[in-house]
Amino acid sequence: MNTPFTSVRSRLIALDRANVDTDAILPKQYMTSLSRTGFGQYAFDNWRYADIGYPGKALEEREPIRSFCLHQPTAQGARILLGRENFGCGSSREHAVWALSDLGISVLIAPSFADIFRNNCFKNGMLPIQLSAEQIDALFTTAAQNPWDEWTVDLEACTLTGPDQHIHFQVELERRRRLLLALDDISVTEQKMDQIQTYEQQRRAQEPWLFS
C-alpha cells in the first residue's frame, strides 16, 4: 500500500552512469520474494561490493567499494537519486523499484527513463523526474561541488529547489494526483464503484440470461 507523496527534502545521491539497467539495480539472485521489502541492502550490489554476494550473506563479510556513491557520507539517509539517460532499462522486473524504495529513495531524477520502469515507479509511489540533459549536467556539477546541499521536491508545485536553483518539472496530471493521494489501480477502481454497480444492474436487466 502506497503512502501519500509529500514534499521531499534531501541531499542528492549522484550516480553518474548512463543506461543503468534493472539487473544492476537489483541482481537476479536476490529476487527471492514478493514481499516488496528487504531488497534495499542488495541494491546496486555488484557496484557496492567487490565480492560476489548472495541472499543471506552478512554485510560485515562483504568487501565494500568505497568509491561508490552509496558509500559516501552524504548519501546516508538521502532520498533523491540523480542519474543519467535511460535509467531503468533492461527487464521489466518490479523488484528494481522495490529495492530503491527499500533503500529509502523516493525521487529519481534523470534525462530519461525506460518506459516500463517509469510506470513501475509511479505504481509504487516513487516519483521519476525527467529533466533536460543540460539541467542534469548542472545538478551533477552542483552535487560534486556542494555534496551536503539539500534539495526540496514539491510535487504540488512541480518544483525542485536547491540553494541556488529553482527548477520546474512536468508530471502527467493523473499520475501526480495518484501520487499525492496514494492511489493505486485498485483504489482508483474502487472510486468508481457506483458507476460499476450501475452498469452491472443495467446489464443484468438488459441481458438477464447472462446471469442465470
UniProtKB/TrEMBL annotation:
Keyword Lyase among record annotations: yes
Domain of life: Bacteria
Enzyme Commission (EC) number: 4.2.1.33
Positions of the Aconitase A/isopropylmalate dehydratase small subunit swivel domain: 7-133
Keyword match Amino-acid biosynthesis: yes
A molecular-function term among this protein's GO annotations: 3-isopropylmalate dehydratase activity
A GO BP entry: L-leucine biosynthetic process
Catalytic activity: (2R,3S)-3-isopropylmalate = (2S)-2-isopropylmalate
Keywords: Amino-acid biosynthesis, Branched-chain amino acid biosynthesis, Leucine biosynthesis, Lyase
Pathway where it operates: Amino-acid biosynthesis; L-leucine biosynthesis; L-leucine from 3-methyl-2-oxobutanoate: step 2/4
Pfam family, one: Aconitase_C
Enzyme class: lyase
Gene Ontology cellular-component terms listed: 3-isopropylmalate dehydratase complex
Homology family: Belongs to the LeuD family. LeuD type 1 subfamily.
Task performed by this protein: Catalyzes the isomerization between 2-isopropylmalate and 3-isopropylmalate, via the formation of 2-isopropylmaleate.
Summary of subunit composition and partner proteins: Heterodimer of LeuC and LeuD.
Protein name from the UniProt record: 3-isopropylmalate dehydratase small subunit
Organism encoding this protein: Alcaligenes pakistanensis
Primary gene name: leuD
